[in-house]
Design brief:
The chain is 12% helix and 40% strand. The protein is built from one helix and seven strands. It has a six-stranded antiparallel barrel with strand order 2-3-4-7-6-5. It comes from Sneathiella chinensis.
């Protein structure tokens, strides 16, 4: 569980990958345990999300759905939390890489919904 009074900075997981090619468009809407978040940026390996989940801890497994913001297209995903940044109010999820659907849809969404 996230204890905001004890932590005031970014908490990286020592295994976090930061060298992946990241895109910011399209913005993805991500739903986890009934909470909605929007991506700040994302890659085939993970998502950087704006906001903080009500319960979060490093290496905590997460599952949910995501898709381009404003679109009905959605996809299930699973991964784990690899960074929590209280100051910037964001957290990062590393995708587990086992979903062929995620691997196929993310590049397609860049082509279909990119606004840059």
């Amino acid at each position: 569980m996230l204890h905001t009074q004890e932590i005031t900075t970014s908490i990286p997981n020592r295994f976090e990958q930061r060298d992946s090619f990241r895109v910011s468009s399209p913005v993805l809407k991500v739903e986890i345990n009934g909470q909605s978040f929007r991506t700040k940026n994302w890659s085939l390996n993970g998502l950087l999300l704006e906001g903080l989940p009500s319960e979060a801890c490093l290496d905590h497994g997460v599952t949910g759905i995501f898709g381009p913001d404003g679109s009905a297209e959605m996809c299930q995903f699973s991964g784990r939390i690899v960074r929590i940044d209280l100051k910037q109010e964001q957290f990062a999820i590393e995708l587990d890489g086992s979903s062929r659907e995620v691997a196929a849809l993310l590049p397609l969404w860049v082509l279909k919904y990119n606004r840059d």
